[in-house]
Amino acid sequence: MPSCLRDIRKRSRVALPLTAVAIGLVSFACAADPPSNLPPSASDLILLKSARLCDKKAAFLRGREAALLRRVVWGSGEEVRIAASHSESRAEESFFFDEDGLLVGALFTFPIGLNLKPYPVLRETLSQLKPTLEFYVNVAQVGSRANLDTSALYMTGDEKSTTQYIVLGGADVPSLLLASFSVDPYATLLSPRRKEFLARVGGTDKSKSSLRTDSKGDEDKELFPALQEFARGEAAHLAYCGTRNDDIAVVAYQKAIKHGFSNKVQLAEAYHKLGLALKGKGELEEARDAIQQSLVIQPNRPEVLNNLGDVYKQLGDQEKALKAFEKAVSLRPNYPLARFNLAEAYEAVNPKLAISEYETYLALVEGIPEEADRAALARRRVKALTR
Fold first, then answer.
1. Please, what are the averages of pLDDT over each run of 10 residues along the chain (387 residues)?
2. CA proximity to 210, closest of 220, 224, 198
3. CA dist 322 to 62, 114, 337, Å?
4. Which of 20, 26, 79, 277 is deepest in the core (most CB within 10 A)?
5. Residue 89: closest CA among 51, 136, 33, 62
6. How far apart are CA 285 and CA 240, in angstroms?
């Protein structure tokens, strides 16, 4: 995953292996001025025209002739397919809706490749991005034999989504084979490291399409239902479509755990996020148990320990909260939030240590705008404790 791309795992508080390749959307409602650390994403090839991520399925279907749509099951959700002959983009289009009826992903495939020569802005963007992955895709219908087996995945994105392009050929004669879009949590469902992803590339020889042997990471074999429910939980808990809904999140995380993950990092994170969603509902004892289970599966994760300490604090168990914050800081000394929480916990038992922790926290967050309010509070607490 390119270092310039905002870390999806960090944004969503999820620790996924690098086998998860994100796909997303160019245009998503965010701040007017995008953060400077986002990668280039400008494009003069507009594929999503009358639809946007997070649209409701009923609104999407309204005004579209049912006879021109093919609706099929997509795990617990639904996929709506539109043939190239009837699509706005002249690509083979697929729109993916979760079981709550929200548009969470879109896929555009060009069976014979789309020559990008008429799109200089997109070509310039691609030239500034490093390929995330290289793999074999044999496309029988592409005219130039030189385009065979020279496929590259490019990723870009914004605050809540990423964009993926699969391009055939080199920089001189690029041909777009696929563009895909999704809100971040659903990225793992449309990854080139999953067999069903490459199977969607129209016109390919499926028997010969594969990842290069030198590509980083192995094929992602996690169960689709588990990934889909986890993604649903993330989207609901983190309000990717505008409204946080921990009722949906709890059910989704529980279903993901029931389906099962072979990767213990993903399983531990599912329990962790279940705990946070339960905490959001005010079910603190259940939240504590879920977060503790996460630590049984994968011990010594500072962010999980910090969240466990916060739950203990709300339960009124200050001693266990203090121990959890201390362990989080011991594992990650430069963890600002855990430092702040530890300082608060020390106030009642050791004011001098509280002052020291507040001062350490302030040093760690100096110049970070997002921490301005908490930093102001820390300064007030230091002043009060030194009287």
1. 35 32 30 58 93 95 90 96 94 96 95 92 93 71 51 88 85 85 90 74 49 52 94 97 96 98 96 98 98 97 98 98 98 98 97 97 96 98 94
2. 198
3. 55, 59, 13
4. 277
5. 51
6. 27
- Range list for CATH 1.25.40.10 in the chain: 224-385
Instruction: Let me know if 70 is exposed, middle or buried by CB neighbors in 10 A (0-12, 13-18, 19+).
Output: exposed
What is the Cα gyration radius of the chain?
A: 23
| Distance from C-alpha of 112 to C-alpha of 346, rounded to nearest angstrom | 65
CA distance 339 to 332: 10
DSSP output for 150-186: -EEEEEEE-SSEEEEEEEES-SSS-EEEEEEEEEGGG
The CATH class, in words, for 224-385 is: mainly alpha
Quote the CA–CA distance of 67 and 185 in Å, as a whole number. Answer: 31
As given in the structure block, the two tokens for residue 249 are 């999140």
Are the CB atoms for 90 and 84 separated by under 8 Å?
yes
Q: Using CA of residue 28, residue 30, residue 31, residue 35, what is the dihedral sign? A: negative
The amino acid at residue 140 is A
The Cα–Cα gap between 304 and 307 comes to: 5
Q: Residue 146 corresponds to which tokens in the numbers above?
A: 């030189």
Contact by Cβ (8 Å): 312, 289: no
Kind and range of the H or E run holding 112: strand 103-115
Residue 314: closest CA among 333, 286, 349, 335 = 286
C-alpha–C-alpha distance, residues 312 and 331, integer Å? 19
Structure tokens, 193: 């490291």
Half-sphere exposure of 316 (CA within 13 A, CB side): 0
